[in-house]
């Protein structure tokens, strides 16, 4: 089965649900924040992003 895109992952999120995405050279924390902002406008949703530097992940929570 093919891996889901970030947009698909964000589209499937329920209100209050959180998902964790790895920070890599290809997908930086600022890149994930930008995706949440852009896709949030497209989908009329709000996302909160938290960066965990120690574990090199971004936690995204759907807030509206």
Name the features.
64 residues, alpha+beta, three-stranded antiparallel sheet, 3 strands, globular
Question: Could you please describe the fold and organization of this structure?
Answer:
There is one protein chain. The protein is globular. The protein has a three-stranded antiparallel β-sheet with strand order 1-3-2, covered by helices on one side. Helix content is 33%, strand content 27%. It is built from two helices and three strands, in the order αβαββ. The longest helix has 15 residues, at 29-43. The chain is of the alpha+beta class.
Q: In terms of topology, how is this protein built?
A:
Blueprint: H1 6-11, E1 18-22, H2 29-43, E2 47-52, E3 57-62
Antiparallel strand pairs: 1-3, 2-3
Task: Tell me the Rg in angstroms.
Answer: 11 Å
Q: Approximately how much helix is present in the residues?
A: 25-40%
The structure class reads alpha+beta
Low-pLDDT stretches: none
Largest sheet: 3 strands, antiparallel
Distance between the termini: 30 Å
Strand residue content: 25-35%
If you average the pLDDT, what whole number results? Answer: 95
What letter string, H or E per element, gives the SSE order?
HEHEE
Tally of contiguous helical segments: 2
The outline comes out as globular
